[in-house]
Specification:
mainly alpha, Cytochrome Bc1 Complex, Chain D, domain 2, Immunoglobulin-like, globular, Cyt_c-like_dom_sf, iron
Length: about 290
């Protein structure tokens, strides 16, 4: 029986491979998935999200809230893909496949813990990013509160909040302010942080899945063991953290951009780079570290 199941599984896998490799499945963003694929993906996604989101505890004082502060935060991070009441997504988002969700429907159909789950963890192969480690817990719940309020928010009311909101952007809670904290860089959090800050876009990094032939920035497997960082400053934990946070201040000629990494997250990233290089700097100081 076991041999039969293995054989059937192997045949099914070979059939799928031949179907895809033979060019029979259109992977362009012009043509939709067949309806059965679309619905199968949706059922699997919703089942897993419901199970996993159940572990996220909704704050006791949570309530749907549409105010200027929440709208300003949403406009900065979400409108580009999802639009808003009376506001279209940016032009690039119109050609995405799958099309980003209309969040009025999400606010009507999904409980707050599921909205929060999507914001925090993102969704593979959908274009939805994970905001964990890049947005504070408080701000993720603010966006959740706004999405839950969308079904009863008119385009006129949204426009009024937009007019009242721009000055609120400077008052957002940053990741660096969003404790609790632990005193040392955490290598495992650093690995995850490098993923959600798109470091594999330019670098090959041990422990992070990516292209094995990428040649944009240098491989980072031995970055913690090099004598100099970027060839310009001695390799110390303090300089590594500074380089991650503000690379062009360290080397104005560097092509590496400032990704807005907070000090605590940079400390985690540095701890990971030293850990995979086998150096003795896995704990890189006593500055606060954001556990998210």
């Amino acid at each position: 029986m076991r041999i039969m199941l293995v054989s059937l599984g192997s045949l099914a896998a070979a059939g799928v491979l031949a179907f895809v490799a033979g060019g029979f499945y259109d992977i362009t963003a012009i043509k939709q998935h067949p309806a059965w694929v679309f619905h199968a993906i949706g059922i699997g996604r919703d089942t897993l999200v419901a199970l996993q989101a159940d572990a996220d505890e909704v704050p006791e004082d949570f309530a749907p809230v549409a105010d200027a502060r929440n709208v300003a935060l949403y406009r900065k991070h979400c409108t580009q893909c999802h639009g808003a009441p009376g506001v279209a997504p940016e032009e690039f988002a119109l050609g995405m496949m799958p099309v980003p969700s209309n969040l009025v429907a999400a606010g009507r159909e999904r409980p707050p813990e599921e909205i929060y789950w999507f914001i925090r963890y993102g969704l593979k192969m959908s274009g939805m990013p994970a905001w964990s480690m890049r947005m504070s817990e408080a701000d993720m719940w603010r966006i959740t509160a706004l999405v839950e309020a969308f079904p009863t928010l008119s385009p006129e009311a949204y426009a009024e909040l937009v007019e009242a909101g721009p000055q609120q952007l400077d008052s957002m809670t940053s990741v660096a302010e969003a404790g609790p904290f632990t005193p040392f860089g955490n290598p495992e959090r650093g690995r995850k942080a490098m993923q959600v800050h798109a470091c594999p876009q330019c670098h090959m990094i041990e422990g992070i899945v990516g292209r094995s032939d990428l040649h944009v920035g240098p491989p980072l497997d031995d970055a913690g063991a090099r004598k100099y960082i970027a060839g310009v400053v001695p390799n110390t934990p303090e300089n590594m953290i500074r380089w991650i946070m503000h690379p062009q201040e360290v080397d104005p000629l560097s092509a590496m951009p400032d990704l807005g990494v907070s000090e605590g997250i940079a400390r985690d990233m540095a701890a990971y780079l030293y850990a995979i290089a086998g150096t003795g700097h896995a704990s890189v100081g006593a500055a606060p570290v954001d556990p998210r």
